[in-house]
Amino acid sequence: MTSVAPLEPDHRQSGHLAAAVPRVVALTGGIGSGKSAVRKMFETLGVPGIDADQVARAIHQDPLHPANKEIARAFPDAVTPAGTLHRGSLRARFAIDAAANAQLKQILKPYVMSAIGQWTRAQSAPYVIWESALILDENIPADRVLVVDARDDTRIARIQARNPDWPIEQIRSILAIQLPRAAYVSAAHDVIDNDGSLQELQQHVKGLDRQYKKLWERA
Hints:
The chain has 219 residues and is of the alpha/beta class. The protein has nine helices and five strands, in the order E-H-E-H-H-H-H-E-E-H-H-H-E-H. It has helices spanning 35-44, 52-60, 67-74, 89-94, 98-121, 152-162, 168-177, 181-186, 198-216; strands spanning 23-28, 49-51, 127-131, 144-149, 190-193. Strands 2-3-1-4-5 form a five-stranded parallel β-sheet, sandwiched between helices. Helix 2 (52-60) crosses helix 5.
């Protein structure tokens, strides 16, 4: 299993009056595995969660955000006259062009991590959930890695259900640019097999919540 460094190693001993920063569970897995469903289940149990993709989207759709100047320099044809990333370009270009995808991620990463770190420090729960497909690709620091896994045919069916206009060739291209399932699983502290029922998924999440609280409520 790949070791993952925690967020700011000394952040929990920053002073007698300082509030402890929550532990971080990095929730990851390939597209269509069910990460968002798992995060929302944790949230129903009172665990704060944040979606890194939504944070990134808010950044690249904000014409005043400094990240968009960098994106415009790197990809002038991918930016609108208003100064935001063209909607649909993530799927149409960056999801199938590995080099462009890597460059865009490097531009966005410091801004996304800064926003997520600030959000995390504002929480008071024993632990929080960071959802991102890029936890392992980008070596994002966390206290624990939780991988949601599912068979490729299950994932493709889920992607098609929510994006009926996507050609199967495009879906397979997106899967191909991501890490293989075995790489996710080998790097995990915990794995959720999401090929079963919704009820089974809920029970697994509840069990992990109990486990994490036992680990960290008195840490």
